[in-house]
Design a protein that fits this description.
The protein is of the alpha+beta class. It is built from 13 helices and 20 strands. The strands form six sheets. Strands 3, 4, 5, 11 and 12 form a five-stranded antiparallel β-sheet that branches. Strands 8-7-9-6-10 form a five-stranded mixed β-sheet, with helices on both faces. Strands 15-16-17 form a three-stranded antiparallel β-sheet, with no helix packed on it. Helix 1 packs across helix 8, helix 4 packs across helix 9 and helix 6 runs parallel beside helix 7.
Length: 479
């Protein structure tokens, strides 16, 4: 079944559509366009305000969309209410600001004290404005008025119905085109939420992969893609603005929306009592994230567990301090063991040595990029242990603390897996040399295809030697 995508007034979906990136990923999809950024018109109350927003649309079904976006405060709260599943592998950042008419006496953020700022209820402009104003004003000086979704709020600002208004994305660019001035920046994060029962993690992964390609195209050549902004410009303003003068708008960031970020967002909302009732639920992060797959029948979603859950989530680096603590002595990794914060490719791997860059070898693991190359050692200063960041480093182990060069850390070594075929394991307790602990299977390998890996530990100096047959093909040492 096709994934129903609700665009968010940004460039990425249109670029991916034009260039066939969704199709290239094998994704069946359709676009759902409804309301004003997914928010339908609502009546104003006695005070002239609109008390519904992005958060409420998730509970209403989001017009049947399987995946859509809203500020991360709203998506986190909706996920806590079980109105959807939070996508944690990406988020976006939207340009946003508090604007005033060109003739306004407000020129500095402090001048906004007591000035009613038009925002959208339970939406990004609501929370982002509050967060930005709290940095410059006392709470009793902050005044907000709820003026509806983005385009309706844009009308209110342009028609001077409010003395100030918070705009983001295309409405921000439109207001600036009409001469409205930015007084205070209020950039904020936007989250992805899966609300459709037919959408699984595989579908969302394909969707995000296509958006990643589109984001790179926009970063490289923004001028070639800004014409898509016209999709988000209200028709009555299209002949009065030039989208070539706009910025690139919302930018998708392919970093995890972590459990810490989720918890901090919820605490921030709770301390201000921004949500009440079930929206203030305390569901754990692991309970509401998208870590589920669609079954083969496609009709029901089942929680992943064990091997299946790991397949859904994909390979993850494992920190060695989870094995033996910070004082864990290092051991060889050939059997799937850990040393410090080295990402492990797979358990029980044969750890074939592969060519790296500038003499830095890596171990070939049976997983997909970018974790297929694991360096034989990691810099002690905390660098990521993946091969690409280490290509330009001068050596294998030059940055560790001086004390570690002389003293072996105390503690109990993690149990070392027996060597597999083609493996030679070093007994580090043997002073002044190495001890051959290779398996009988390794000794039975024909000489024309044999390979050996040896490590010597002598007086604080380590040496690593790789041989193919009888020819030494790689040799390095370090202190």
């Amino acid at each position: 079944m096709a994934l129903k995508i609700m665009p968010h007034g940004r460039l990425q979906e249109w670029v991916a559509e034009e260039k066939g990136y969704f199709t290239a990923e094998g994704l069946e999809y359709s676009f759902v366009s409804a309301g004003d950024y997914g928010i339908h018109a609502a009546g104003r109350d006695g005070a002239g305000e609109i008390k519904t927003g992005a958060f409420e649309t998730f509970g209403a079904g989001r017009d049947g969309a399987d995946v859509s976006c809203a500020c991360h405060w709203a998506t986190s709260a909706a996920a806590s209410e079980r109105a959807g599943r939070l996508v944690t592998t990406a988020y976006s950042v939207a340009p946003c600001a508090v604007l005033v008419p060109p003739e306004s006496p407000v020129h500095r953020p402090e001048d906004l004290a007591g000035v009613a700022v038009g925002v959208g209820y339970h939406s990004g402009s609501h929370f982002a404005t509050l967060q930005a104003l709290e940095a410059v004003l006392a709470s009793d000086q902050i005044s907000l008025t709820f003026q509806g979704p983005p385009n309706e709020r844009l009308d209110a600002l342009l028609e001077r119905q409010v003395p100030a208004g918070t705009m983001w994305g295309v409405p921000l660019y439109v207001a600036e085109a009409f001469g409205f001035r930015k007084v205070l920046d209020a950039t904020f994060m936007i989250g992805f939420l899966v609300t459709g029962g037919n959408a699984g993690k595989a579908d969302v992964d394909m969707y995000l992969t296509a958006l990643r390609r589109a984001q790179m195209d926009i970063d490289l050549h923004p001028e070639a893609h800004k014409h898509y902004h016209v999709h988000a410009v209200p028709e009555k303003y299209r002949d009065r603005v030039d989208v070539r003068a706009f910025g690139t708008g919302e930018r998708i960031v392919f970093l995890p929306y972590s459990g810490d970020a989720f918890a901090a967002t919820r605490r921030w909302a709770e301390t201000r009592s921004l949500f009440t009732g079930s929206a203030a639920a305390t569901a754990d992060y692991d309970e509401i994230i998208l870590a589920r797959c669609r079954t083969r029948a496609g009709a029901r979603l089942a929680s992943c567990s064990g091997e299946h859950r790991q397949a859904c989530l994909g390979p993850r680096p494992e920190a060695a301090d989870q094995v033996g603590g910070v004082a864990q002595a290092e051991v060889l990794q050939a059997g799937g063991g850990q040393a410090r914060r080295v990402p492990l490719g797979a358990h029980d791997d044969r750890a074939h040595v592969v060519a790296g860059h500038l003499g830095e070898p890596g171990g070939g693991a049976r997983i997909e990029p970018p974790l297929e190359h694991v360096p034989l050692d990691q810099q002690r200063a905390g660098d990521a242990a993946l091969l690409p960041p280490l290509r330009l480093r001068p050596g294998v182990d030059q940055d560790r603390a001086g004390s570690h060069r002389q003293v072996r850390l105390s503690g109990i070594d993690a149990t070392q897996a027996p060597p597999g075929q083609f493996q030679y394991v070093v007994d580090r307790s043997s002073p002044g040399g190495y001890h051959d602990r290779s398996s009988p299977a390794a000794r039975r390998v024909p000489s024309e295809v044999t390979s050996k890996r040896r490590m010597l530990d002598r007086g604080g100096e380590y040496a690593w030697m790789l041989t193919a047959g009888s020819v030494v093909s790689f040799l390095t040492s370090w202190m």
